[in-house]
Design a protein that fits this description.
The chain is mainly alpha-helical. Helix content is about 55%, strand content about 0%. The chain has helices spanning about 10-20, 35-45, 55-70. About 0% of the residues are buried.
Length: about 70
């Protein structure tokens, strides 16, 4: 069995592939994007900002963890 990744550029090609699948000649399996690909998409949608530093984030995490220990 050979496995191929196909990029469909035309809706007519999608119909042909669906027809081949209906005939049982091929099977179509959807692939989920990898974690890395999903992170890159999310990262693109976030605004670029230097207002928050990595240290600010670490300090906030530390504060939250400390407050949970008090409870």
């Amino acid at each position: 069995m050979e496995m191929l990744t196909i990029e469909i550029n035309n809706p007519k090609a999608k119909r042909l592939i669906d027809d081949l699948a209906d005939l049982g000649l091929i099977s179509v399996k959807e692939t989920k994007p990898s974690w890395n690909e999903r992170w890159q998409e999310l990262s693109k949608s976030l605004p670029d900002s230097d207002a928050i530093t990595e240290q600010d984030i670490l300090d906030e995490v530390s504060d939250v963890r400390s407050s949970k220990k008090v409870l």
